Amino acid sequence: MSAGLDGVTVDIMTRNRWTPSTTRVLDDVTLPLPAGTVTALVGESGCGKSMVASVLTGLLPPGSAPSGRLRVGDEAFTDGELVGADRRWRGLRGRRIGAVPQSASTSFTPVRSVGAQLDEVIGTLGGSRDAVELCRRVHLDPAALRLFPHELSGGMAQRAAIAAALAGDPDTIVADEPTSALDAELSADIWELLAEAASTGAAVLVITHDVETMRRGCDSVAVMRAGRIVDHRRLDEIAASDDAYVAGFFERVP
Ligand SMILES: Nc1ncnc2c1ncn2[C@@H]1O[C@H](COP(=O)(O)OP(=O)(O)OP(=O)(O)O)[C@@H](O)[C@H]1O
Ligand code: NI
């Protein structure tokens, strides 16, 4: 099932001493996420990439005033419904939309084994696969289920976090910088894993700074600047852009 943002603008009300002011963090963002593909989202720090993830997961911060439309499969959320208070969000998160956090360490509590925590997620979401099957899907040795989060390597922890995101069999997957803590080889593995999830029909969005290994698993790249999508094309096309801001992200891509 495909997903996508359509003309989404988000203003956040902030209070500076006594003067309320509004910051536009997303400006008319249209980002289609077709089923079966991986879309990468790049852009300078603070340009709004994580806000796009917040829109997709219904987790915009308090004080957000959104407009526009989000589509997830056959569900559509318009304007105020985008803040995530809508009851439909509860059925969506985890089941239709899986989120992979930036740091795997934020997905797991240190006090219980990885297996116990995965079982809990599967139970809550009514997932059809058990923890061992999920491990196989993310190429994680099921022996890791007996371990505590601090006993996993960075790459293993990120695989376990992806396993948790896949537990409810979501058809849209949003990963915010899933490879930022990993070396190039492990990053490439994670991209391949996300591409594998897409090959089973999921729409995958990966927010990243990792242009060197993204070629291992991405179908198109969207570039953001100051809350707007300024370009969105295939990696080979966009890397050859004449625009200095856009091309700047791909300088080190051989
Ligand atoms: N809770 C919040 N309240 C008000 N403004 C916020 C809030 N969270 C983020 N912002 C603002 O929204 C803008 C976009 O932030 P966002 O986190 O989406 O950037 P980003 O592109 O993900 O950056 P990075 O690469 O550093 O993660 C920034 O200007 C930030 O200051
Ligand atoms: Ni971010």
UniProtKB/TrEMBL annotation:
<dbReference type="InterPro" id="IPR017871">
    <property type="entry name" value="ABC_transporter-like_CS"/>
</dbReference>
<feature type="domain" description="ABC transporter">
    <location>
        <begin position="8"/>
        <end position="251"/>
    </location>
</feature>
<comment type="subunit">
    <text>The complex is composed of two ATP-binding proteins (NikD and NikE), two transmembrane proteins (NikB and NikC) and a solute-binding protein (NikA).</text>
</comment>
<dbReference type="GO" id="GO:0016887">
    <property type="term" value="F:ATP hydrolysis activity"/>
</dbReference>
<dbReference type="GO" id="GO:0005886">
    <property type="term" value="C:plasma membrane"/>
</dbReference>
<keyword id="KW-0533">Nickel</keyword>
<dbReference type="InterPro" id="IPR027417">
    <property type="entry name" value="P-loop_NTPase"/>
</dbReference>
<keyword id="KW-0813">Transport</keyword>
<dbReference type="GO" id="GO:0005524">
    <property type="term" value="F:ATP binding"/>
</dbReference>
<keyword id="KW-0406">Ion transport</keyword>
<dbReference type="InterPro" id="IPR003439">
    <property type="entry name" value="ABC_transporter-like_ATP-bd"/>
</dbReference>
<dbReference type="InterPro" id="IPR003593">
    <property type="entry name" value="AAA+_ATPase"/>
</dbReference>
<keyword id="KW-0921">Nickel transport</keyword>
<keyword id="KW-0067">ATP-binding</keyword>
<keyword id="KW-0472">Membrane</keyword>
<keyword id="KW-1003">Cell membrane</keyword>
<comment type="similarity">
    <text>Belongs to the ABC transporter superfamily.</text>
</comment>
<keyword id="KW-0547">Nucleotide-binding</keyword>
<protein>
    <recommendedName>
        <fullName>Nickel import system ATP-binding protein NikD</fullName>
        <ecNumber>7.2.2.11</ecNumber>
    </recommendedName>
</protein>
<dbReference type="Pfam" id="PF00005">
    <property type="entry name" value="ABC_tran"/>
</dbReference>
<dbReference type="InterPro" id="IPR050388">
    <property type="entry name" value="ABC_Ni/Peptide_Import"/>
</dbReference>
<dbReference type="GO" id="GO:0015413">
    <property type="term" value="F:ABC-type nickel transporter activity"/>
</dbReference>
<keyword id="KW-1278">Translocase</keyword>
